[in-house]
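Priority: medium. Attachment 1 of 2:
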């Protein structure tokens, strides 16, 4: 959530930054109008309480001196109380409306984020690794997965509908090996602590991460208990220190988690429906950091580097993109994507997004820190990065390491986790 003081102090700046994101800047005027109405009601309520308290104090004295006049004073207190009750109701209504409006405003882009109206304005910063030259026509992953017998799309659809799938034997072993290797890498080389998280969370947890109310249509919801299936581990990790005041010495805090992710993907209907590229349920390893504000810019570069280390370890060509203003996530002030090359389907696959959310999520979740004992609490900055997302990494492995005979060589880092070095086509 944005700082309301910033909107009050410099509304033109907020309007300009929202315009960069292709957002309607008129919301700033709506916020200011609601804020002014709410503050007037709060002021009136404070004055009414003071008047009522002063009137109440005099009633006792008047009862001894002039009971008739005291009765009139009691009537004045009742009128003040009635008006105060009405003002309190209106104040709460304005405050709730203001909060709802603020919850729908995205974070403001950093100064160095490229301005653009859509993903076509994203900037490719660099490409890493050599794209393999094949002496045969490489197959797309859906053909490879079928011949290897590692994915069953038909039965996945039978169980749950379109965009669901079943991993079979070597397929699920490969996913499990990737997850374990990535967690081990981030623990031993990057210093993250692993969390085992709930996959369903409360409404306020979704709000704090920036998923509600903006993206309710893309989330899965249990109506009876008002619980939401997580679209990413970022959601519960954001709230792990909710309503806490941390010590500066404890920062940075680095957490990681492997979870399934659940997304309705309504906005992507009709796109990328073949294979396992865009699905409603997938697994992901997520990295997350809570840092002091002055450290967040540098931390974004390092957390992206941690995700890059996964790409490098697997030996898969990838590229780094800086996202433009309109393509960043709702809570992000600056973001990078990592995309792996998939030669069979001839496309770049997004496998990681790294974002600096500054104090946007921390303000919603009320996560603060003190620089020293007795100091005024400040909001932390939060950052997240996929490290990495499956099953797109599996797609990249299949398509990059396929052989002419239909087999697929596995990256060497996975050999100890798989117990084999190659996936062979099924026969018979």
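Attachment 2 of 2:
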């Amino acid at each position: 959530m944005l700082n309301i003081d910033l909107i009050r102090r410099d509304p033109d700046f907020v309007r300009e930054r929202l315009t960069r994101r292709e957002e309607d800047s008129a919301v700033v005027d709506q916020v200011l109008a609601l804020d002014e109405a709410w503050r007037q009601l709060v002021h009136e309520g404070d004055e009414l309480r003071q008047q009522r308290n002063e009137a109440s104090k005099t009633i006792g004295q008047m009862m001894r001196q002039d009971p008739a006049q005291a009765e009139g004073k009691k009537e004045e207190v009742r009128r003040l109380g009635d008006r105060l009750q009405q003002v309190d109701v209106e104040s709460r209504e304005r405050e709730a409306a203001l909060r709802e409006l603020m919850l729908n405003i995205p974070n403001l882009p950093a100064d160095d984020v490229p301005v653009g109206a859509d993903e076509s304005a994203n900037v490719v910063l660099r490409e890493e690794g050599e794209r393999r030259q094949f002496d045969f026509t490489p197959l797309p992953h859906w053909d490879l997965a079928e011949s290897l017998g590692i994915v069953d799309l038909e039965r996945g659809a039978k169980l749950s509908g379109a965009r669901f799938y079943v991993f079979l034997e070597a397929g699920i072993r490969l996913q499990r090996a990737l997850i374990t290797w990535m967690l081990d890498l981030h623990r031993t080389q990057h210093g993250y602590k692993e969390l085992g998280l709930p996959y369903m969370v409360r409404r306020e947890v979704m709000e704090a991460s920036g998923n509600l109310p903006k993206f309710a249509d893309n989330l899965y919801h249990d109506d009876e208990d008002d619980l939401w299936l997580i679209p990413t581990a970022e959601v519960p990790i954001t709230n792990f220190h909710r309503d806490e005041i941390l010590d500066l010495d404890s920062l940075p805090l680095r957490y990681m988690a492997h979870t399934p992710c659940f997304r309705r993907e309504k906005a992507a209907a009709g796109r990328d429906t073949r294979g396992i590229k865009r699905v409603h349920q997938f697994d992901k390893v997520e990295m997350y950091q809570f840092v002091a504000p002055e450290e967040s810019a540098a931390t974004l570069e390092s957390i992206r580097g941690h995700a890059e280390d996964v790409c490098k370890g697997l030996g898969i060509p990838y590229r780094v993109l800086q996202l433009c203003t309109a393509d960043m996530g709702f809570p992000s002030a600056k973001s990078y994507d990592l995309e792996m090359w998939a030669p069979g389907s001839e496309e770049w696959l997004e496998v990681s997004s790294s974002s600096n959310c500054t104090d946007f999520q921390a303000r919603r979740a009320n996560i603060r820190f003190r620089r020293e004992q007795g100091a005024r609490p400040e909001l932390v900055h939060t950052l997240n990065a996929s490290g990495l997302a499956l099953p797109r990494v599996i797609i990249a492995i299949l398509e990059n390491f396929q052989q002419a005979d239909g087999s697929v060589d596995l990256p060497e880092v996975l050999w100890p986790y798989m117990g084999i070095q190659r996936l062979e086509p099924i026969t018979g």
